[in-house]
Design brief:
The complex is a heterodimer. Chain A is mainly α. Chain A has one domain: MetI-like fold, CATH 1.10.3720. Helices cover 74% and strands 1% of the residues of chain A. Chain A has a two-stranded antiparallel sheet. By secondary structure, chain B is an alpha/beta fold. Chain B has two domains: 155 residues, 3-Layer(aba) Sandwich (D-Maltodextrin-Binding Protein, domain 2); 213 residues, D-Maltodextrin-Binding Protein, domain 2, CATH 3.40.190. Chain B is 44% helix and 12% strand. In chain B, strand 1, helix 2 and strand 2 form a beta-alpha-beta unit. The longest helix of chain B is centred in the middle third of the chain and has 24 residues. Classes of the chains: A mainly alpha, B alpha/beta. Chains A and B meet through helix 1 and helix 12 of A and helix 1, helix 3, helix 4 and helix 16 of B.
Chain lengths: 291, 427
Amino acid sequence: MRNRKNLFYAIILLLPAFGLYCAFLLYPIAQSVYMSFFKWKGIMNTPMIYAGIDNYRRVLIDPFFWNSMLNVFWFMAGGFLVLMPLAFGLALVITSKLRGLRFLKTAYFMPVIIPLTAVGLMWVYILQPNWGLFNTILQGLGVKDAAINWLGDPKTAIFSVVLVNEWIYAGFNMLIFAAGIMAIPEDIIESAIIDGASSWQRLWRFTIPLCSESFKIFSILCVTGCLRHFDLVYIMTRGGPNHATEMPTTLLYSQAFVYRNFGQGNAIGVIILVCGLVLTIILNKFLSRED
Amino acid sequence: MKKAFGILLALVLLASANVFAEGKKETGKNVTIRVTTRWSDDAPDSKYFRDMIEKYNSLGKGITVVGEHIQNEDSYLDKLRTQFATGTPPNLFIEYGGSRIVDYVAAGALVDYKPYLDKEPAWRDTFLPLWDKWEYKQYPGIYGIPVQFYAVCLYYNKAIFAKLGLNPPTTLDELRDVSAKIKAAGISPFMVGEKDSWRAGHLFNNLVMKSFGAEGVAKLADRSLPYNGPDVVKLFALIKEFNDMGYFGPNAVGVDYNAERTAFLTGQSAMHYNGSWFLGEAASSDLKDSIGVVPFPSINPKYKDSWQGGAADAFSMAKVKDPAQIAASIDFIKFITSQEYYAGREKANMGGAYPVKFQSDPAISNPVNTQFKAAIKDAKEYRDDVQTYDTESHMLETVRLAIQGLFVGKTPQECGDEIVAKIKANQ
C-alpha cells in the first residue's frame, strides 16, 4: 500500500517534467520528421504537398551539404585537438594549489557567461581585416603578411570560427574536467608520490585514466554540439563568405527561412538528429569499459 | 496502476501538443497594429517616419501603431518570414514586391488594396503609376502601396576629383580610368560593403540595366539570357576585375554597408553608388557641399538612360482575422501617403523623389538633391532589383550570394554556374 502511494506521488511529481519534455522535445521532433516528407513554403495555413523522400534526395546531392558536414568535422577536430587539451589544462590549473585561483577560475569561466551574441560580435570586430585589433597587433609586430581577412577568406574563415568557439567553451569544459580531477581520491595520488612517480607520470598514468568519465562526457557533448552548432557561425559569418562556413544547421535555416523550403530544412534536421544518435551510440560503445 | 499511468502519460503527451494558446484579441475600441520596416537608422527619412508614428498615435483615433524596425535586410527578412511561418505576421510590412512577395500573394496571405483604392479614386490618383511590382497576372489585385521612389546613382567626392584633376565618369571605361588614378593617389575609389550582399547585388543590377536595359531584365527572368552565358558572365568578370584591382577597397566582404557609407561621408573613399534614399543623409553630412551626383556610368550607349530604380519600398498588408485591424491599417496607410505627410518628409530630407504627385516646396532645395534631379531628368526606364521580376522567389538571395563568391576567389563562370545549379535544384 505504502509503495503504491509512493509510486502515485512520484508519478504526479514527474508529470510536469514529462509534459515539458513532450511539448518541447518529442512533439517538435515528430513534427519535424513528418514535415520532412512534404513541400511547404512556410506560410501558415497553406497546404503541405507530399514529396516522399525527394527532400532527402535534394539534400544528399547538394554539394553545400557535404561541405557543411566537412565543417562539422573541422569543429570536431578543433574540439578534440584544441578544446580538450586546453580545457583539461585549465582544469589542472584550477585544481592545483596555485595562488590567485579564484581570479583564474573567474577569468577562465568569463567567456561562458557573456552572451554568445555579444562574444560573436566582439570577435567579428577583433578579426575585422582593415582595423580590427588582431590585425593591428600583427601589423604592429611587423607581421603584415599574416594580417589577412580571417573571416572573409574561405580558406581561413571556418578555422577562425572554430578557434573562437574553443575560446568560448574552454571555461565550461574546464569545469567538467575539474569535477573529474576533484573526484580522484587523494590517497591514490599520495601513494603515487610515495612510490616516486614524477608529475608527468602521475598525470599520464593516474589523473587522465581516472578522469575517463569526464573525457567521455566531453566527447559526447563535443560531437553532438558540433553537429548542431548554429549560433556562433550565424553571428560571425552567417555561413559565408559564399557558403564557406556553412554548417548543417545554417543550411537548415537558409532552406527554411530564406528559400522557404521548409520540407528540405526539416530533412536536414532529421539527418542531423540521426547522425547525432548514431555517433553517440558509437562513442558510448567505444568509450565504455568494464568497471 | 501501470495501465492508468500509461493512459495519463498519453493524455499529457496529447495535451502538450496544444500548449500554445491563441493570441489575445483586441477588446473594446482601441486597436493595436504592428508595422515593421527597415527604418531603424538615423537617416532623416527613417527618423521622420518614426516621429510620424508617434504623431499618429497621438491623434486620438483609438489606434495604436507599434513600430518594429530592423535595418539589416537579412535580419529583417528572417524575422518577417518567421512571423509568417508562425501565423503572427505584422499588420503592415515593408517589402519590395515582385518575386519577393509572390509566395505570400499565392498563399492568400496578403490584403488586396484594389477595392480600397477603387473606392477612393482621389487617394488612388495621388500615386504615380508604379504598381507593376505589386500586380500579378495570375493573382488579380494590388498587393502593395509604394512609399519610396528611388534611383541608384553615383555619388562622388568633388574635392578629391578636383584635387586629382578628374571629371566624374560617364562611361565604364572612364570609371576604370578614374578608379586607377584615384587608387594610384592612395585613396580608395570605392569602399563596397559586401558583407551585406545586396551591395554587389545592386552593382550587378546597374551593370545589367546599362548593358541590356529593361529587356535584359525580362530575358534573365525567362532564362533566355542565361546567368552562366557569356553575356552575363562578362558582367561578373567586371565585378571581379574591379575587386581584384582594389577599386572596391580592401577586404570588401569584411566591410558592411554602414562602414561603406561612413567611408564615403568621411572622405575615405572617392565614389559611392547608392539609391536616392541616401540623399537626405548626404545632404545633412559634413561633406554635403562636396558631394556630386551623376548617373551610373553607361556601358552600352543604347541603354545609357536605363536606370536601376522605380518604386522601391511598399507597404503590404497581412490578411488578419480582425477587420478592425485591417481598417486601422488602411487608415494608417492613408496617413503616411497623404500630401501633408510627404510635404513634411520632403522637408525632413531637404528634397528627395517620391512615388506620389505632390506640390514640391521650391524653397526646399540642397545642392545634392538638385544634382540628383538633374541626373535623372533624362531617365527613360527604371527597373528594381533584377531578380524581383523573376518567377522564383529564391533568386534574389541566390544571385547575391553567388556574386559574393566573386570577392572570395570564385571565377565569373563559377558564379554563373552556381546560380544555374541553384535554379535547377529548386525546380
